[in-house]
Amino acid sequence: MGNCGTREESAVISNAHLQVQQFQGLSASSGNSALEKKHSRSISNLSDPSTPHNSEDARKNAVLYTHVIAFTLFELETITKSFRSDYILGEGGFGTVYKGYIDENVRVGLKSLPVAVKVLNKEGLQGHREWLTEVNFLGQLRHSNLVKLIGYCCEDDHRLLVYEFMFRGSLENHLFRKATIPLSWSTRMMIALGAAKGLAFLHNAERPVIYRDFKTSNILLDSDYTAKLSDFGLAKAGPQGDETHVSTRVMGTYGYAAPEYVMTGHLTARSDVYSFGVVLLELLTGRKSVDKTRPSKEQNLVDWARPKLNDKRKMLQIIDPRLENQYSVRAAQKACSLAYYCLSQNPKARPLMSDVVETLEPLQSSGAGNDTSSSSSSTLVGGSSPFAMGRIPDYRMHHRFVSTVRPGGCRSLNPNCSPGGSAVRVG
Fold first, then answer.
1. Three-state DSSP class for 29?
2. Which of 18, 105, 178, 303 is the most buried (most CB within 10 A)?
3. Is residue 118 marked as binding?
């Protein structure tokens, strides 16, 4: 593995090594034979019979990786063909992400699996901190709606991360690339639920974790559109005991960061709830959180859309027209109601992510998502239909929700930040 730099890095890696000892014990039985093969290994590719030829095989093999693996730089150079340009999946603030395959040719005992290899940009301290944060959190947290960290590399000044490969890429691409087929209503609600479950898991962990950079580009989709949160570089351990918040330097992405966090640097789990509300609004409208190509009053999605979310007539007008005849008015009203409260200017008026999950689950049923009959859903707004949170009528919410919230969005001091790009300081 090589020298891993600072004392802080060594501590994180030592913690990670506690989890990989079992795997290394299994592979140690191959002894010198593995070392002898080091410089004669062939590069794994799709023509290799042990490499998964479909996503189902990959999913089954991914389950077998229960421990984080310490890879050598040589191994990761091998699977990416020395980080060849045609293997690039994407680039961000952290660095470049490459496609690769791990299997028996890389190390004895490894099951065939396509992976994404993230290479730290050596310039800048932020990348080093984010690398440590990702190893620390993803090395310990496992959930079906979090991208699995397969391994890492820490050699000299090289810092790399190896994740399971997500076959359908980011939610951002599926929502906003013109060449793609529009996501259906049912798929959008399924993605919203999966992402909500990921956040709820983080917030309810033994030591709560605040994700801090929830946005469409950080939600990756598996072959069956299962949503998984990726990029934990900005995640923070949440408040404990009598603490009400975590004070931190303002980091995030313009258009998604909660307004109180931008203004004060006070971070809570409700900051993530606001960001979730922005993404839910993007799913409902098919619009970007910030879009400079639109008329001035429509460029900030939250400012434009939130006042319409609790108006039955206007609400239906802002829903993505590509979703016509795919949802019931009842389902649309419930989803819009949820977005409305998630986007509250008052953090205490926002729901918990566990409440969000409970609200979204009924929208997965065929009756809620596919019933297009107006007669079956004509008594929605202000009607007697219970909202999932506390089984209370819509807009007559639990005491956490207040009805005097002013519409508005996050106004950053840096409005020129790319809304879909990497995380940047916004205040």
1. coil
2. 105
3. yes
Low-confidence ranges of the chain (pLDDT < 70): 1-66, 93, 123-127, 238, 241-245, 247, 365-427
Tell me which DSSP letter residue 373 carries: -
Q: What tokens does 362 get?
A: 């009924």
Q: Which amino acid is at 295?
A: P
Which of 177, 192, 186, 230 lies closest to 323 in space, CA to CA?
A: 186
Strands (E), 12-63: none
Identify whether the C-beta of residue 68 lies closer than 8 Å to the C-beta of residue 16: yes
57 alpha carbon, distance to own chain's centre = 23
* Residue 415: how many other CB atoms lie within 10 Å: 14
d(CA 166, CA 183): 17
Provide the residue ranges of all domains of the chain, joining segments of one domain with +. 7-164, 171-393
Pairwise CA distance, residues 210 & 218, whole Å: 14
Helices and strands, number each (H, E), in the chain = 14, 14
Residue 117 · residue 78 · CB < 8 Å: no
How far apart are the C-alpha atoms of 224 and 55, rounded to whole Å?
Answer: 9
H/E stretch holding 283: helix 269-285
In angstroms, the Cα distances linking 317 to 57, 311, 322, 323, 324 are 43, 10, 12, 12, 11
Q: Are 175 and 183 in contact (CB under 8 A)?
A: yes
Kind and range of the H or E run holding 366: helix 366-370
Chain Cα centroid distance, residue 53: 26
> What does the DSSP 8-state code read for residue 87?
G
pTM: 0.74
Interatomic CA distance for residues 235 and 232, integer angstroms: 5
CATH of region 171-393:
1.10.510.10
Active site residues: 213
Q: Does domain 7-164 have CATH number 2.60.40.10?
A: no
